[in-house]
Every structure is written in C-alpha cells, then in structure tokens.
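Review form for a predicted model. The reviewer records the input and the model, then writes brief findings.
Reviewer: anonymous (R2)
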Amino acid sequence: MRTMGSESSMQPLGPGSSGPAVSDVQAALRSLGLLEPGGAGAGASVGPEVYDQATELAVRHFQQVRGLSVDGRVGEETYRALSEARWSLGDRLLHHDPERPVRGDDVTSLQERLLELGYDAGRADGIFGRETEDGLRAFQRDYGLAADGTCGPATLRALRQLGRKVTGGRPQLLRQSASLVDSGPHLIGRRIVVDPGHGGTDPGFTAGETTEADLVLDLARRIEGRLAAAGATVYLTRGRDQDPTPEQRTAFANDARADLFISLHMDAHGSEHARGVASYYYGTGSGTSSTVGERFADLARREVVARTGMLDLGGHPKTWDLLRWTRMPAVRLDCGYLSHPVDRLLLLDARLRGTVASAVLAAVQRLFLPADADPPTGTFVLPQRV
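Model under review:
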C-alpha cells in the first residue's frame, strides 16, 4: 500500500468574514452578474468587504450552477472556480504549461469548440493539458495555421469563422468507451486507486468515538483486499495519520496511471430524515461528463443498494476538483449518513462494510464486462481464482 502526506488549506470565507479576500470574491461575483454593483449587495448596510447575506446567496447560486457543493461558503474549491469563471475565450493567450497548467472558463470554451469540430482535446475540464495542446495543434495543421499549440488571435479567428459540426459523439467519450471494451473483462493488472476521505487531523463526521475517517479507511482496506485477490493492483491514497489535499490525492492517482479512482465517504446532515447512498462523477450538468465515470457511479451505487437495502439517492454530476483533476474515470461514493440512526447502525457493523466492499468489487468487475455478459444488479459473484 502506498500513501502520501498532507498540507494545510485556506480558511473558508462565510457570513461575517471580512477583508480583501471577501472583496475579491464580491468583485468576481459582480463580474459574473451575480451580485449588485456598488456594494456587497442591494441595500446593504455593511461595508463592501463584509460577507453579507447577499454575498452568501450569490455564492450559493454560483455553486449550484457550477456543480459544486452548495454551502454558501468560499473554500479553496469555490475560490478557484470563481477565479476561473472570470476568463472568457480571447482574454489571454492559451498554451500548455506542464509546471503551472492554465485553467479557466476560456480553456473550457476552447476545448468544447475543438470537440464540436471533431478534434480530440481531452475532457472539457477547463485545464489546458497535453491532450488539449494535441487537439489544438491538429486543428491548426488542418486549417493552415502555425501548429504551435498556442491559441492566439489567428487561431481564434479561424475558430469563430467555422460553423459548428456535431459528428455523433465526442471523440474522447468514444475513445474512453472503446478502450474499456478492448481492454478485456479481467481485473488482473488493473491499477485502481481507492481514496478514503478525510484522515489525519480531519476526522470527518464524528459520532462518539467513531469517526468517518476511520470507517472509510476500514472500508477502503476491505475493498483493497477484495480487488487484490481478484488480480488488481490497488493503491490507497492515505493511511490513518494522513489527510492529503484533493490535489495530492488526484496527483497520486495520475502518477500511478490508474485505470479507475474510487473516493469513499460517509455523509452527515442536520435533517433527521437524511439517509441513503449517493454516487458522483465528473460532469457539468450541461452534457459534458465522463461516460465511464457515470456508468461506474451508477453500477457501484446500485450494487451497494441492492446488497444492503439502503436508500438509493441516485447519481449526480459534479465538478469537484477530486473528479475533475483525475485523468481516469473517477467516482465518489457516499455510503450512507452517519447522522441518521439507522444508517449509522448499519455502517458501524463490520459485516455491512464487508458487504459494501463486495458490492464495489462486483461493480468494478461489471464495468469491464461486455454488455451481453453483464449480470443483473446484486447477483454477480466474482469466481475464485485458482
């Protein structure tokens, strides 16, 4: 098992916060038309650098539209998304920098435009990586431009002069699905990263002496054992005393050249009625998504629900950094609510966690099976290796 360290994160901004960082957030919200100009909000009686109710509502709206967690607070992820949202295509030169990748909505617009024209620019994730550079160079060569991989004025003019061309499926989605089929149904040699959430000084939700961090680590180790027994090479992103950042977790998976990334969490909510299992995959909610990630999110959640009887909360597209920065299909699985008395009793039972681990194993195997050999949900049992 490989693990990695952790580093500190920014202090989230919320109601009552003040200072230059709040002013910067408000400026970004105004530029996006989400906050009234001339103050923190319409009719605000506080200074422009105070995080007031209007700012909170604007942040919530922004988070909803961007596929982020909607809590009305600005942490690292929301702050980064606000910064990226300021950029429109044409505001700056775009190129690939392996040390400090260019990120922003202008990159997303470029990627979507190239994909619409039939060029494989990778996932439309707003990160100018090697795949985006390759797609841009191919476009530039085909249209008689200098194939320098930089999106400047000449390339922008060419992109704007061309009509949209939808060709029946974006190339990176077709490639991802075809690669899955061609790779065969076995798990031997597959590299799978299992990411137990929280850890170290971040215990997650705590109920008495029980912490979310400990429970998901136990679950991750159970999944690790089952996948390894089936022939897969499995890596965990952390041990008991570590709490890697999302960037460290995704970089770890990318460096391992993983075939699949599975992040494990257990949820909590103030409502006494909140319970059940949910799954998340990379997607913007407007048609851009990881098709394999969406399929695996659906398989894993339904297998868990079928084998445990827990409530099915569905699968949802999100633009969380943990899902966006991975270069392979990535899924977050929330295995129940520790704040709900029934879910908590189930999750505290080691046998139930073993059942969830078996469900995840079945989902991983089903992901690689051809459609005509895929068994009904809740019935698949991996044959014992001889």
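Findings: The radius of gyration is 22 Å.
Further findings: Residues 105-168 form a domain with the Muramoyl-pentapeptide Carboxypeptidase; domain 1 fold (CATH 1.10.101.10).
Recommendation: see findings above.
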